[in-house]
Amino acid sequence: MKEIKITEFEHVKIGNAQNMEAGTGCTVLLFEDGTPAGLDVRGGGPASRESELLKPMAAAEAIHAILLSGGSAFGLNAAGGVMKYLEERGIGFDVGITKVPLVCQSCLFDLGVGDFRVRPDENMGYEACVHAEEGNYQDGVVGAGTGCTVGKLHGMEFSMKSGIGSYAVQTGDLKVGAIVAVNALGDVFDWQSGKKLAGLLDKEKKQFLNSEEELYKSYEAVENRFVENTTIGAILTNGAFTKAQLGKLAGMAHDGLARAIRPIHTTADGDSIYAVSVGTVKADQDMVGTLAAQVMAEAIKRAVLSAGAAYGFPAAGDMKK
Predict the structure, then answer these.
(1) Domains, the chain, ranges and CATH?
(2) Inter-CA distances, 19 with 2, 143, 235, Å
(3) pLDDT in tens, 100-144
């Protein structure tokens, strides 16, 4: 098994767009030929668009884009730019008089990072598509990762910077990869060594606190728990799978979140993972699903390690070894 770049998948183009001053952005995955996809939502506070299309009983067998975005529900407007871009190129579901692009989207909450009045909009969504054509995708504090932070159990003041990350592997003809914007309530760990990489800080902001242990200090119900969270991402594979099978793969990929983020899937998160088939390689569903969890865990690690300090939040590289 060898590592490959997330951009080495056929039939998909990935691009970022962001407003660095405002601290928000979006990342688009374009499937101009249309491709089957599935979705599994585990968090308690998702913001999404066209997610019903991905249910097995829905008529649509293919989608044309996935948009990962900041801006919370306001960021849903960015999908309009993706639709415009695809419509201009005659890409979409043929309804006779025109073609309607099928664009799925998930948003994360980054309004507390930069200027909350600026969110991903139609122009930014369109810009991300242009960048996807240029093939300039990169990890870090860019795209949907621009406003990402982690370790927010005690509020933004004690959290750390995160970003968007990716990781992919190839074994034989089969490719499996993950891309993820990590904006979690919990702490982030190296899934292999168990070392904490980023998360909740103490009052001096020099040492880590353990978010799970802090959570266990009181069992009294908390109303309006800090909700500026959500980890959103996608699994890419050139394995040939149906929409129903891809929904299961997306669910298995959530195991990667559980390996790398603790706590995870809380009511204050909106964790959502897509799975997309962009090829025709015959592969075992359980093998690919298990591998999907692994590449997702590694992509989460890289999302944290590729992020530098920004907007007043320290990054993993700032912590004492």
Answers:
(1) 2-310 (3.60.70.12)
(2) 35, 9, 26
(3) 999 999 999 999 898 999 999 999 999 999 999 988 899 999 999
